[in-house]
Amino acid sequence: MPSTVSFTLNGEPVSAEVSSRTLLVDMIREQLGRTGTHVGCDTSQCGACVIHVDGVSVKSCTMLALQADGADVVTIEGVARNGELHPMQAAFREHHGLQCGFCTPGMIMSALDLLQTNPDPSEGEVREWLEGNLCRCTGYQNIVKAVLSAAATMRG
Amino acid sequence: MDDSARQHSGERISGAVGTPIPHDSAHLHVSGAALYTDDLPEPRGLLHAAVGLSPVAHARIAALDLGEVLQAPGVVDAMTADDIPGKNNCGPVVADDPVLAPGVVEYAGQAVFAVAAESVEAARKAVHLAKVSYEELKPIIDPVEAVAASSFVLPSEVIERGDSRKAIDAAAHRLQGRVSLGGQDQFYLEGQIAMALPREDGDLFVYSSTQHPGEVQHLVAEAIGRSSKDVVVECRRMGGAFGGKESQPALIACIASLLAHKTGRPCKLRLDRDVDMLMTGKRHDFVIDYEVGFDDDGLISGIRFEFAARCGMSADLSGAINDRTMFHCDNAYFLENISIVSHRCKTNTVSNTAFRGFGGPQGMFAIEHVIDDIARYLSRNPLDVRKRNFYGKTTRNVTQYQQTIEDNIIEDVVTQVESSSDYAARYAAVRAFNADSALLKKGIALTPVKFGISFTATHLNQAGALLHVYTDGTVHINHGGTEMGQGLFTKVAQVVAEELQIDIDRIKITASDTSKVPNASATAASAGADLNGKAAQAAAQTVKRRLIQFAAEHFNVEPSAVRFENNEVLVGGQAIGFAELVHLAWFARTSLSATGFYKTPKINYDRSTFSGRPFYYYAYGAAVSEVIVDTLTGEHRLLRVDIVHDCGKSLNPAIDLGQIEGGFIQGAGWLTTEELWWNEKGELKTHAPSTYKIPVCSDVPEEFHVTILESQANREETIHRSKAVGEPPLMLSLSVFHALRDAVASVSNYQVLPGLNAPATPESVLRAIDGQRAAG
Question: Are B35 and A35 in contact (CB < 8 Å)?
């Protein structure tokens, strides 16, 4: 049975008719047309679909759209401000923390959540935090460099 | 000279060759604005496809009833092999790869029928309503079983040099053994996908996530019973490929295209991860038998290899892949008397295919295994035995396929990493640690890489490009290569920027498109930048020549007095902006568009005798890895890695560094954590990341030191003297496997050869440790 789900997406109010089975990632990609959030494994393991719901990182392929009703949802498209890359985005670009780029949105959303609670993480903490985000291209070296660099920038 | 003429500023353009600029799409990747195939705006009336897979490995299809499927909500159409108007084949070399099973299924996971529906969910749900009955036939799953049954997809091949039998029999020492080596799923993060759009007059436009748009074009055209001119294939980027999108995308694109052709509506097929892993091919797994004779120093006098590769149910690219195994089972070593037998086994499993290294890693695994055994048998440091067998520079420098190695730098590379890693001291320290540690054991190993660059099929070593210059001085570049994250588009744009001496942001990099550059080879064999860089350079040079000729005539100077530098053109000492010159040239009716073409020189190779020069040059590298193993559980960790790798004169050191790091870790996954496990019925049971483990961020050691070999220009005249870097670094990961062998061997105080098979999962390591204890 279809229901209407409404939430704030990247600061804008949105709503859509969804079924009780609709996954949040499918609503975001297919109904709301924000395709920066990717589906990599369909089973909540690869982390390409990580977004923030009420300020916390979640794998949007493992959450129902209905569960997001009334929430504050931020996807990769909502990270930059006034056309300027967020320091985390800039760091991934500058430090070559990407190759094919498919995992990048989820990586950035996960890394941002880490820095909310741990603004000065050690390399080991970054590596452990990002265990839920798979990257097949980079060997993770430059991703870790990017996160550490962004953390330093964001601490000011 | 007009009024705008001015003195040249002397600065460098941005994005010149050799600068470590970011990936051209990096700003889009980090913003979620880079469009992958599934992100493209969906056309009106789009249908979504799903595929019905065979649950059994080998069977005759006794009955196939799609009645209920067609009645399911949202379903628009469905099809079987009988509904294919053209050829039911997506095989790249041999026409033995049906799109949809024609009466017989030959692997569990094979596509039997396809459904088109109004939504992804409707299509996927409807698949389960099919009534299919199978009369099961006996499957052959294992390559050893296949050899016994003479079940092959292609004839076995042999390379012989000298008399290996006689040399082994006469040798002071002899060893023989068998080792098995697992396959590997490519696990590109973006799964296989295609979207086909009907165009007027029965034509099709296909978006495909593919390394080989031209092949998708040809096979789609044949499947719908049309010709290549009726189909256009485009790919702007892939979310990873690693060889898994060399031949496999044709299957996905053919299904989407056949449904679009049948229904007259656009159709998209995106495989979910489980289906992707069940249905599409992987790296070949091998069983390797060897016999070797050697002297007291470990110098090999004779060696015999017998390779049995699980090719799966069809030939796919297995011929060239297994040829490359035969070409690389020397790695960096001169094997004077050698016999290689290569079986291309037909099994009732998914047809194995390209994966970074393309058979080379398996060949190198074999010889490194033998060398390591020799060293352990003689109680020598394995590095000494490796060095003892290295190719020479002027003697002992001809491969088993009769190519003289002219660019041997393996000793330089090994010496550098031996020193930077402090190998000798750490080798001793590992042994000291193990003497005092009962349960935790360390191991260390240094392994070299020598990898031949070029497609071994000579005709594939060609490339085309198309370049337009617009009147505002900006440039549109297109070439036959595809972007899968490796940075090819960035490198090619750098080449064009350098040639035309304009800032790279004046150059638009565009999607691979069969209507712009036809008949392109797959972006594969590490040769993307070598081939397409040269083709793009040729196109730029053609336009540049025309501009020089125009400028010489217009300003009445000698052509030799016209020079391009830093966004300007110097004409007899005076500078004019590039855009201004272009505009003047256009006004004077000069063609500002050109194609470029390149074919790799010097290579020639006779496959009937396996001899000649298949490779234009070799890329070299070496790595030292150190591991620690828990001997109670077999669990292990990588503690430190040191790499020195040869990129020639790098086109972009940042991109190349990423290729080295990523390739190494991907190889480490192949050899340690990634296990493809089939049961006796031929069902792959590790078909999702829940059970199939690629390396994660915390698997990579903090001590990970990667160095690009300094100032080593390619001896051959490659694009700006660079070297290919896509595949070679993967094989640096053999050092991880051999470090694990070293740790395992310590359990018997280095007295018993470690019987470690790959992947060295904790289970495999524990089994090898048990072997040490039982023998010791």
Answer: yes
How far apart CA B235 and CA A51 sit, in angstroms, is 27
From the list B377, B401, B374, B393, the residue with the least C-alpha distance to B385 is B374
pLDDT for B334-356, tens place per residue?
999 999 999 999 999 999 999 99
> What's the gap in Å between the CA of A29 and the closest CA on chain B?
8
Question: Per-residue pLDDT for B5 more than 50?
Answer: no
Which of B39, B658, B697 minimises the CB distance to A99?
A: B658
Please name the residues in contact with A146: beta carbons below 8 A apart, sequence gap of 6 or more: A88, A91, A92, A94, A95, A97, A111
B189/A135 CB distance under 8 A: yes
Chain B contact for A137, CB < 8 A? yes
Is the Cβ–Cβ distance between B19 and B494 less than 8 Å? yes
Facing A137 at nearest CB: one of B33, B38, B240: B240
Give me the mean pLDDT over the B498-524 stretch. Answer: 97
Q: Does A102 touch chain B (CB under 8 A)?
A: yes
What is the distance in angstroms between the CA of the first residue and the CA of the last residue of chain A?
A: 50
B228-247 average pLDDT score: 98
Tell me if B150 is assigned to some domain: no
User: Which chain A residue lies closest to B696 (C-alpha atoms)?
Assistant: A131
Taking only the tens place, the pLDDT of each residue in A143-155 is 999 999 999 999 9
Whether B156 maps to a domain, the answer reads: no
Tell me whether A2 touches chain B (CB under 8 Å).
Answer: no
B556 and B681 assigned to the same domain = no
Average pLDDT over chain A, rounded to an integer: 97
Q: Say whether the peptide bond before residue B759 is cis (omega within 30 degrees of 0).
A: yes
CA distance B375 to B367: 12
A103: nearest CB among B189, B191, B688 = B189
Question: Is the Cβ pair A102, B190 closer than 8 Å?
Answer: yes
* Segments forming the whole domain that contains residue A106: 87-155
Helix extents (H) in B30-178? 67-71, 120-127, 143-148, 164-170
Q: How far apart are CA B724 and CA B211, in angstroms?
A: 17
- Tens of pLDDT, residue by residue over B569-596, are 999 989 999 999 999 999 999 999 999 9
Closest Cα in chain B to A95: B22
pLDDT at B7: 45
User: What confidence tens digit (pLDDT) does each residue in A62-100 have?
Assistant: 999 999 999 999 999 999 999 999 999 999 999 999 999
Residue B769: left (phi > 0), alpha (psi -120 to 50), or beta?
Answer: alpha
Mutate to test the interface with B, among A102, A144, A147 (most CBs of B within 10 A): A102
CB B184 within 8 A of CB B674: yes
B200 is catalytic: no
Same domain, B619 and B675: yes
In this prediction, residues B684-699 reach a mean pLDDT of 97
Residue B508 pairs with which residues in a beta bridge? B476
ipTM of the complex: 0.98
CATH number of the domain within which A101 lies? 1.10.150.120
Q: Does the distance separating the beta carbons of A94 and B22 come in below 8 Å?
A: yes
pTM: 0.97
Same domain, B651 and B593: no
Residues B201 and B335 in one domain: no
Contact list, B235 vs chain A (CB under 8 Å) = none
Q: Say yes or no: A46 contacts chain B, CB-CB below 8 A.
A: yes
Q: Which residue of A has its CA nearest to B356?
A: A137
Tens digit of each residue's pLDDT (9 = 90 or more) over B595-623:
999 999 999 999 999 999 999 999 999 99
Are residues A101 and A52 located together in one domain of the fold?
no
What is the span of the domain harbouring residue B703? 286-456+607-775
Number of domains in chain B: 3
> What is the nearest CA distance from A56 to chain B, expressed in angstroms?
19
**B33·A37 Cβ contact <8 A:** no
Considering the domain architecture, whether residues B450 and B466 belong to the same structural domain is answered as no
Looking at the structure, do residues B95 and B235 belong to the same domain, yes or no? yes
The predicted structure's pLDDT at residue B573: 84
Assigned domain for B134 exists: yes
Average pLDDT of chain B is 97
Assess whether B343 and B421 both reside in one domain.
Answer: yes
For residue B259, what is the domain's CATH number? 3.30.365.10
Question: Measured between CB atoms, which of A93, A100, A127 is closest to B30?
Answer: A93
- Cβ distance A101 to B238 less than 8 Å, yes or no, reads no
Same domain membership, residue B423 and residue B491: no
